[in-house]
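Q: Phosphatidylglycerol--prolipoprotein diacylglyceryl transferase, please. Structure only.
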Amino acid sequence: MLSAINPIAFELGPLSVRWYGIIIASAILIGYLIAQRESVKKGYKEDTLIDIIVWAVIIAIICARIYYVAFEWSYYKAHPAEIPMIMNGGIAIHGGLIGAFSTGFILAKRKNLSFFQLADIVAPSIILAQAIGRWGNFMNQEAHGGEVSRTFLEQLMLPEWIINQMNVGGTYYHPTFLYESLWSLTGFVMLLLVRKHLRIGQTFLLYAIWYSIGRFFVEGLRTDSLMLTEHLRIAQVISIVIITVAVITWLYRAYRYRLPKYGDVNVALKGSNDETYK
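A: Structure for Phosphatidylglycerol--prolipoprotein diacylglyceryl transferase:
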Protein backbone atom coordinates (compact mmCIF):
# COMPACT_ATOMS: atom_id res chain seq x y z
CA MET A 1 0.00 0.00 0.00
CA LEU A 2 1.23 3.48 -0.85
CA SER A 3 1.81 5.95 1.95
CA ALA A 4 -0.49 8.93 2.35
CA ILE A 5 0.40 12.08 0.45
CA ASN A 6 2.44 14.51 2.53
CA PRO A 7 0.30 17.65 3.06
CA ILE A 8 3.50 19.73 3.02
CA ALA A 9 4.63 20.42 -0.55
CA PHE A 10 8.04 21.84 0.37
CA GLU A 11 9.88 23.76 3.06
CA LEU A 12 11.73 27.05 2.90
CA GLY A 13 13.78 27.19 6.07
CA PRO A 14 11.31 27.33 8.95
CA LEU A 15 8.40 27.91 6.56
CA SER A 16 6.33 24.88 5.50
CA VAL A 17 4.34 25.40 2.31
CA ARG A 18 1.30 23.14 2.30
CA TRP A 19 -0.50 21.71 -0.71
CA TYR A 20 -3.71 23.14 0.74
CA GLY A 21 -2.48 26.69 0.30
CA ILE A 22 -1.03 26.03 -3.15
CA ILE A 23 -4.28 24.51 -4.39
CA ILE A 24 -6.46 27.29 -2.96
CA ALA A 25 -4.18 29.96 -4.47
CA SER A 26 -4.19 28.15 -7.82
CA ALA A 27 -8.00 27.90 -7.75
CA ILE A 28 -8.31 31.65 -7.16
CA LEU A 29 -5.83 32.44 -9.95
CA ILE A 30 -7.48 30.16 -12.51
CA GLY A 31 -10.92 31.52 -11.62
CA TYR A 32 -9.67 35.09 -11.95
CA LEU A 33 -8.06 34.51 -15.37
CA ILE A 34 -11.30 33.04 -16.75
CA ALA A 35 -13.44 35.83 -15.31
CA GLN A 36 -11.01 38.54 -16.44
CA ARG A 37 -11.12 37.32 -20.02
CA GLU A 38 -14.92 37.36 -19.95
CA SER A 39 -15.12 40.81 -18.35
CA VAL A 40 -12.94 42.34 -21.08
CA LYS A 41 -15.04 40.56 -23.69
CA LYS A 42 -18.14 42.16 -22.18
CA GLY A 43 -16.63 45.62 -22.52
CA TYR A 44 -15.17 46.29 -19.07
CA LYS A 45 -11.76 47.91 -18.65
CA GLU A 46 -8.95 45.49 -17.85
CA ASP A 47 -8.49 46.79 -14.32
CA THR A 48 -12.19 46.84 -13.38
CA LEU A 49 -12.45 43.24 -12.21
CA ILE A 50 -9.03 42.96 -10.55
CA ASP A 51 -9.78 45.97 -8.33
CA ILE A 52 -12.91 44.25 -7.05
CA ILE A 53 -11.50 40.72 -6.85
CA VAL A 54 -8.42 41.67 -4.82
CA TRP A 55 -10.57 43.16 -2.07
CA ALA A 56 -13.20 40.43 -2.38
CA VAL A 57 -10.59 37.68 -1.91
CA ILE A 58 -8.99 39.39 1.10
CA ILE A 59 -12.34 39.96 2.82
CA ALA A 60 -13.52 36.46 1.84
CA ILE A 61 -10.54 34.80 3.53
CA ILE A 62 -11.02 36.87 6.68
CA CYS A 63 -14.77 36.17 6.79
CA ALA A 64 -14.24 32.46 6.07
CA ARG A 65 -11.93 32.24 9.07
CA ILE A 66 -14.18 34.30 11.34
CA TYR A 67 -17.16 32.13 10.36
CA TYR A 68 -15.26 28.93 11.15
CA VAL A 69 -13.83 30.20 14.43
CA ALA A 70 -17.24 31.49 15.55
CA PHE A 71 -18.82 28.06 15.24
CA GLU A 72 -15.80 26.35 16.83
CA TRP A 73 -15.49 28.89 19.61
CA SER A 74 -15.50 26.27 22.33
CA TYR A 75 -12.07 25.23 21.04
CA TYR A 76 -10.61 28.58 20.01
CA LYS A 77 -11.50 30.41 23.21
CA ALA A 78 -9.08 28.00 24.91
CA HIS A 79 -6.50 28.33 22.09
CA PRO A 80 -6.69 31.98 20.97
CA ALA A 81 -3.16 31.92 19.53
CA GLU A 82 -4.39 29.52 16.84
CA ILE A 83 -7.13 31.85 15.54
CA PRO A 84 -4.93 33.53 12.89
CA MET A 85 -3.23 30.25 11.85
CA ILE A 86 -5.23 29.88 8.67
CA MET A 87 -2.38 28.00 7.01
CA ASN A 88 -3.36 24.96 9.10
CA GLY A 89 -6.84 24.88 7.59
CA GLY A 90 -10.12 25.83 9.17
CA ILE A 91 -12.02 28.11 6.83
CA ALA A 92 -15.69 27.89 5.92
CA ILE A 93 -16.74 28.43 2.32
CA HIS A 94 -20.08 29.96 3.27
CA GLY A 95 -18.31 32.62 5.33
CA GLY A 96 -16.02 33.29 2.39
CA LEU A 97 -18.92 33.64 -0.05
CA ILE A 98 -20.74 36.03 2.25
CA GLY A 99 -17.62 38.18 2.52
CA ALA A 100 -16.80 38.05 -1.19
CA PHE A 101 -20.25 38.90 -2.52
CA SER A 102 -20.87 41.58 0.10
CA THR A 103 -17.59 43.22 -0.89
CA GLY A 104 -18.39 42.86 -4.58
CA PHE A 105 -21.82 44.42 -4.09
CA ILE A 106 -20.46 47.44 -2.21
CA LEU A 107 -17.61 48.07 -4.67
CA ALA A 108 -19.86 47.62 -7.71
CA LYS A 109 -22.26 50.22 -6.35
CA ARG A 110 -19.40 52.62 -5.60
CA LYS A 111 -18.12 52.22 -9.16
CA ASN A 112 -21.65 52.62 -10.57
CA LEU A 113 -21.51 49.15 -12.12
CA SER A 114 -24.13 46.42 -12.35
CA PHE A 115 -23.50 43.99 -9.50
CA PHE A 116 -25.61 41.29 -11.13
CA GLN A 117 -23.78 41.44 -14.45
CA LEU A 118 -20.44 41.27 -12.68
CA ALA A 119 -21.76 38.37 -10.58
CA ASP A 120 -22.81 36.60 -13.79
CA ILE A 121 -19.28 37.05 -15.12
CA VAL A 122 -17.56 35.58 -12.06
CA ALA A 123 -20.12 32.87 -11.11
CA PRO A 124 -18.62 30.12 -13.33
CA SER A 125 -15.15 31.03 -12.07
CA ILE A 126 -16.23 30.79 -8.45
CA ILE A 127 -17.77 27.35 -8.76
CA LEU A 128 -14.71 26.15 -10.71
CA ALA A 129 -12.47 27.50 -7.94
CA GLN A 130 -14.61 25.62 -5.43
CA ALA A 131 -14.21 22.42 -7.46
CA ILE A 132 -10.43 22.83 -7.47
CA GLY A 133 -10.23 24.00 -3.88
CA ARG A 134 -11.80 20.82 -2.51
CA TRP A 135 -8.63 19.00 -3.51
CA GLY A 136 -6.88 20.96 -0.78
CA ASN A 137 -9.13 19.12 1.68
CA PHE A 138 -8.10 15.89 -0.01
CA MET A 139 -4.42 16.67 0.61
CA ASN A 140 -5.19 17.34 4.28
CA GLN A 141 -7.33 14.18 4.59
CA GLU A 142 -10.21 16.28 5.89
CA ALA A 143 -13.80 17.15 4.96
CA HIS A 144 -14.48 13.45 4.43
CA GLY A 145 -17.60 11.43 5.11
CA GLY A 146 -18.35 8.45 7.29
CA GLU A 147 -16.64 5.07 7.30
CA VAL A 148 -16.79 2.88 4.20
CA SER A 149 -15.01 -0.24 3.11
CA ARG A 150 -12.13 -0.36 0.67
CA THR A 151 -14.35 -2.45 -1.57
CA PHE A 152 -16.88 0.39 -1.71
CA LEU A 153 -14.20 2.82 -2.90
CA GLU A 154 -12.92 0.33 -5.46
CA GLN A 155 -16.46 -0.05 -6.82
CA LEU A 156 -16.44 3.69 -7.50
CA MET A 157 -13.52 2.94 -9.85
CA LEU A 158 -11.30 5.43 -8.08
CA PRO A 159 -7.56 5.36 -8.71
CA GLU A 160 -5.38 3.80 -6.05
CA TRP A 161 -3.88 7.10 -4.93
CA ILE A 162 -7.32 8.49 -4.05
CA ILE A 163 -8.39 5.29 -2.31
CA ASN A 164 -5.21 5.29 -0.30
CA GLN A 165 -5.59 8.93 0.72
CA MET A 166 -9.06 8.15 2.06
CA ASN A 167 -7.45 5.75 4.52
CA VAL A 168 -7.12 7.82 7.67
CA GLY A 169 -5.71 6.02 10.67
CA GLY A 170 -6.51 2.63 9.19
CA THR A 171 -10.14 3.45 8.34
CA TYR A 172 -11.53 4.27 4.91
CA TYR A 173 -13.95 7.18 4.51
CA HIS A 174 -16.40 8.59 1.96
CA PRO A 175 -14.49 10.91 -0.45
CA THR A 176 -17.01 13.72 0.02
CA PHE A 177 -14.43 16.20 -1.24
CA LEU A 178 -14.64 14.40 -4.59
CA TYR A 179 -18.43 14.32 -4.67
CA GLU A 180 -18.59 18.09 -4.15
CA SER A 181 -15.74 18.75 -6.56
CA LEU A 182 -17.45 16.82 -9.36
CA TRP A 183 -20.80 18.50 -8.61
CA SER A 184 -19.15 21.92 -8.79
CA LEU A 185 -17.25 21.03 -11.97
CA THR A 186 -20.52 19.95 -13.58
CA GLY A 187 -22.02 23.27 -12.48
CA PHE A 188 -19.13 25.16 -14.09
CA VAL A 189 -19.75 23.51 -17.46
CA MET A 190 -23.50 24.04 -17.17
CA LEU A 191 -23.18 27.74 -16.35
CA LEU A 192 -20.88 28.33 -19.31
CA LEU A 193 -23.32 26.58 -21.64
CA VAL A 194 -26.48 28.38 -20.52
CA ARG A 195 -25.17 31.79 -19.45
CA LYS A 196 -25.71 33.62 -22.74
CA HIS A 197 -29.35 32.48 -22.80
CA LEU A 198 -30.16 33.62 -19.25
CA ARG A 199 -31.28 37.07 -18.13
CA ILE A 200 -28.92 39.39 -16.25
CA GLY A 201 -28.45 38.03 -12.72
CA GLN A 202 -29.84 34.57 -13.43
CA THR A 203 -26.45 32.94 -13.97
CA PHE A 204 -25.36 34.07 -10.52
CA LEU A 205 -28.64 32.94 -8.96
CA LEU A 206 -28.45 29.58 -10.76
CA TYR A 207 -24.93 29.16 -9.39
CA ALA A 208 -26.20 29.82 -5.86
CA ILE A 209 -29.01 27.29 -6.27
CA TRP A 210 -26.89 24.61 -7.93
CA TYR A 211 -24.03 24.80 -5.46
CA SER A 212 -26.35 24.86 -2.47
CA ILE A 213 -28.27 21.76 -3.60
CA GLY A 214 -25.05 19.80 -3.93
CA ARG A 215 -23.65 21.13 -0.68
CA PHE A 216 -26.82 20.21 1.21
CA PHE A 217 -26.59 16.54 0.25
CA VAL A 218 -22.81 16.21 0.51
CA GLU A 219 -22.84 17.87 3.92
CA GLY A 220 -25.17 15.14 5.14
CA LEU A 221 -22.38 12.60 4.56
CA ARG A 222 -19.62 14.51 6.33
CA THR A 223 -18.37 13.80 9.83
CA ASP A 224 -16.69 17.15 10.54
CA SER A 225 -19.60 19.52 9.96
CA LEU A 226 -19.94 22.76 11.87
CA MET A 227 -23.06 22.28 13.98
CA LEU A 228 -25.76 24.78 14.90
CA THR A 229 -27.30 22.35 17.38
CA GLU A 230 -26.54 18.75 18.24
CA HIS A 231 -28.38 17.50 15.15
CA LEU A 232 -28.53 20.58 12.89
CA ARG A 233 -25.68 21.17 10.44
CA ILE A 234 -24.97 24.84 9.77
CA ALA A 235 -24.06 24.32 6.11
CA GLN A 236 -27.36 22.58 5.40
CA VAL A 237 -29.35 25.35 7.04
CA ILE A 238 -27.41 28.02 5.11
CA SER A 239 -27.88 26.05 1.87
CA ILE A 240 -31.66 26.01 2.33
CA VAL A 241 -31.65 29.75 3.08
CA ILE A 242 -29.56 30.49 -0.03
CA ILE A 243 -31.80 28.40 -2.28
CA THR A 244 -34.91 30.11 -0.93
CA VAL A 245 -33.48 33.64 -1.29
CA ALA A 246 -32.13 32.89 -4.78
CA VAL A 247 -35.47 31.57 -6.04
CA ILE A 248 -37.39 34.53 -4.57
CA THR A 249 -34.88 36.97 -6.05
CA TRP A 250 -35.11 35.26 -9.46
CA LEU A 251 -38.91 35.55 -9.49
CA TYR A 252 -38.94 39.12 -8.19
CA ARG A 253 -36.41 40.37 -10.74
CA ALA A 254 -38.19 38.60 -13.58
CA TYR A 255 -41.44 40.32 -12.54
CA ARG A 256 -39.99 43.74 -11.63
CA TYR A 257 -37.51 44.42 -14.46
CA ARG A 258 -37.28 43.99 -18.22
CA LEU A 259 -34.00 42.12 -18.05
CA PRO A 260 -31.94 41.53 -21.20
CA LYS A 261 -30.17 38.27 -21.88
CA TYR A 262 -26.57 38.10 -20.69
CA GLY A 263 -25.37 37.37 -24.22
CA ASP A 264 -26.99 40.56 -25.56
CA VAL A 265 -25.32 42.95 -23.10
CA ASN A 266 -22.03 44.76 -23.66
CA VAL A 267 -21.12 47.67 -21.41
CA ALA A 268 -18.99 49.21 -24.15
CA LEU A 269 -22.18 49.71 -26.16
CA LYS A 270 -24.56 50.70 -23.38
CA GLY A 271 -24.16 52.12 -19.90
CA SER A 272 -24.13 49.49 -17.16
CA ASN A 273 -26.30 51.69 -14.93
CA ASP A 274 -29.25 51.34 -17.29
CA GLU A 275 -32.51 50.09 -15.71
CA THR A 276 -32.27 46.84 -17.66
CA TYR A 277 -29.01 45.95 -15.88
CA LYS A 278 -30.47 46.00 -12.37
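A: Brief note, in case it's useful. The chain has a mean pLDDT of 90.
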